[in-house]
């Protein structure tokens, strides 16, 4: 069973690429950001807690996120997994390892979509006009980048050390062209 982490800074195209590759492969898919937005929309207790943090560009607590992933994997243990937006801290990555090994699923593989920061900012500001996500404003985006540099970039190093990391150019080319490269990588994992 494959455990694939689609990794990248905010705006790198994880959601877009996930949608394309899910048409080709039969993955059980989770986007932690999407689940949190759903919780906010439904006005749940978790949603209320998450909303404050998300609107500031900060991360939600590891405990909450790890709980979500644990139940997701439990419910989809017979399938290949595609994780989008998780893990975002080394603590989350370590917990994922434990969960995967408790289900005898083997190692996770990271595929990073690499995009320059100035292009990311531009993409997110454009998306703000189209989708109106509350965290897509310049101030919050800057804090999301800051959190990424402080907490999430180290996740790439964690998987590099285990030789479980591949990166592809997520900047040059159309989403369809980038997905061709991504599909090739997945087929050769
Ligand atoms: P993006 O990658 O564009 O920032 P996401 O939809 O993946 O967007 O996440 C939106 C927000 O949800 C993040 O800024 C963060 O506050 C929260 N979030 C999502 N996934 C995680 C996670 N694994 N750990 C902590 N917070 C998360």
Main sheet characteristics: 5 strands, parallel
* Topology as a string of helices (H) and strands (E): EHEHHHEHEHHEH
- Span of the ends, CA to CA: 11 Å
Strand content: 5-15%
User: What's the pLDDT, averaged over the residues?
Assistant: 97
Shape: globular
Strand order of the largest sheet: 2-3-1-4-5
* Strand count: 5
What integer value in Å does the Rg equal? 16 Å
Low-confidence stretches: none
* Small-molecule components bound: adenosine-5'-diphosphate
Which structural class do you get from the secondary structure elements? alpha/beta
Share of helix, binned: 55-70%
Number of helical stretches of at least 4 residues: 8
Write the layout of secondary structure elements.
Layout: E1 3-7, H1 14-22, E2 27-31, H2 32-41, H3 45-56, H4 62-75, E3 80-84, H5 90-102, E4 109-114, H6 117-131, H7 138-161, E5 165-169, H8 175-187
Parallel strand pairs: 1-3, 1-4, 2-3, 4-5
Helix pairs in contact: 1-8, 2-3, 4-5, 6-7
Bound molecules: adenosine-5'-diphosphate.
Task: Give a concise summary.
The chain is α/β, with parallel strands linked by helices and 189 residues long.
Folded structure, characterized:
This protein has helices at 14-22, 32-41, 45-56, 62-75, 90-102, 117-131, 138-161, 175-187, and strands spanning 3-7, 27-31, 80-84, 109-114, 165-169. With 189 residues, the chain is α/β, with parallel strands linked by helices. Strands 2-3-1-4-5 form a 5-stranded parallel sheet, sandwiched between helices. α1 (14-22) packs across α8, α2 (32-41) crosses α3 and α4 packs parallel to α5. The structure holds adenosine-5'-diphosphate. The site of adenosine-5'-diphosphate has 17 residues, from α2 and α3.
């Amino acid at each position: 069973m494959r455990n694939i982490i689609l990794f990248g800074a905010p705006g790198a195209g994880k959601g877009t690429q996930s949608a394309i590759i899910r048409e080709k492969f039969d993955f059980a898919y989770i986007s932690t950001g999407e689940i949190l937005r759903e919780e906010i929309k439904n006005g749940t207790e978790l949603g209320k807690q998450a909303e404050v943090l998300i609107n500031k560009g900060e991360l939600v607590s590891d405990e909450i996120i790890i709980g979500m992933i644990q139940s997701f994997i439990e419910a989809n243990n017979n399938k290949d997994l595609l994780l989008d937006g998780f893990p975002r801290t080394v603590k989350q990555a370590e917990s994922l390892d434990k969960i995967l090994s408790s289900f005898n699923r083997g190692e996770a593989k990271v595929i990073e979509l690499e995009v320059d920061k100035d292009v990311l900012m531009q993409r997110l500001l454009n998306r703000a006009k189209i989708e109106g996500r509350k965290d897509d404003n310049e101030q919050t985006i800057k804090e999301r980048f800051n959190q990424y540099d402080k907490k999430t970039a180290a996740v790439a190093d964690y998987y590099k050390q285990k030789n479980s990391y591949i990166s592809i150019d997520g900047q040059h080319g159309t989403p369809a062209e980038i997905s061709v490269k991504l599909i090739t990588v997945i087929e050769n994992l």
